[in-house]
Amino acid sequence: MSADAARIHSLRSAVGHADRADHAEQPDARAASRAIVRSWRELTGGSSVDDADRPTLLAVSGGADSSALALALGRTRGVRSIGHVVHDMRPRQDAEADRRLVEALGRVLDLPVRVAYADAGNSEAAARTARYGALARLARNAECRYVAVAHQADDVLETMLANLIRGAGPRGLRGPAPRRAIGDGVTLVRPMLGVGRAEAEAICRHACWTWAYDATNDDPTRLRAALRAEVTPVLERLRPGASRRAARAARAIREAARVVRDAVNEAWPRVAMRTPSGLELAQPPMVDLPPAVREGLLRRAIDEVAGRGHDRLSAATARSLSAWLVDGRGVRTVAGLRLEHRGGTIAITPAPREDA
User: Fold this and answer.
1) What average pLDDT does the chain have?
2) CB 155 within 8 Å of CB 177
3) How far is CA 219 from CA 154, 243, 250, in A?
4) pLDDT, tens digit, 9 for 90 and up, residues 217-255
5) Which of 115, 151, 196, 317 is 20 to 30 Å apart from 27, CA to CA?
6) Residue 336 pLDDT
7) Which of the pair, 91 or 83, is modelled with greater confidence?
8) Distance CA 68, CA 244 (A)
9) How many C-beta neighbours within 10 Å does residue 165 have?
10) CA distances from 258 to 6, 38, 176, 189, 217 (A)
11) pTM over 0.85, yes/no
């Protein structure tokens, strides 16, 4: 037996006997695995659906979080495949090493590994869009309705802190959605939002699995890396379990944001009208709306005219625009757009180049 085959046999044995092993030395690993399985079932139909009717592709990068996702869910009947996306934001040698590691994990779990190559562009947002598009294609090819990804509670806390210090509104503080559509017939689910990074690593250690490590996580020029190294450990030390409580707070904010979104959608046909050059908002009906709904209408209007994510507007800017809409006059320029009071309406158009 080759060294690689022997290692896979040993790892397969460790994973296969996980539920029967003595977990006294790592009390969180088994509980975390059960929590991940329970959450996956809740997000893919609930208790009335048999596991075999939850066809799922696991998105695995090779890091600790996604490896833990695979180790926790890889033996369930609904999981059909592992999906791995190789993109160009990492050195090719490192990316190919990650691919080989994920393929080895697939052999441990007796799961096929489907690999896609994606051009990530020059930003994290573009990389995320390319990755989700590639995962949706892999899922359709594997006849899977679900793609499970490994975002966990520490990710939620880091995202909330990053958005908090830039002054984001509720959309920026609500955390990632537990599930959302990412393509025709494909739904992304996040079954690890209730566990943290330490628990993910405990799952990997219990299965004797050595995960890949991305050195960009140590880059102090990246805000998320700096928060991870310097801020969240302090919060966890001051209040153990801070990340899981932050994830619960994010869910509460998400519910509140949904109420505002529904109110915005209800009011939109009454206040918004498309024009050849942009969009107009009827001022009188907006004046009596709650400020949060006014701000939501302004964000949506700006998004529709500018064609980009309206939560990039800070909470302070949205609040200022809301007050200006009610009491002000004249012109404001925001996000490359011109907003102008015009006798009972607010006209929103692209700003002239010299004003943008």
Assistant:
1) 86
2) no
3) 18, 21, 26
4) 777 788 888 999 899 999 999 999 999 999 999 999 999
5) 151
6) 85
7) 83
8) 17
9) 11
10) 51, 25, 13, 18, 32
11) no
Higher pLDDT, 4 or 176: 176
Per-residue tokens: 156? 């939620």
Gap between the Cα atoms of 171 and 190, Å rounded:
18
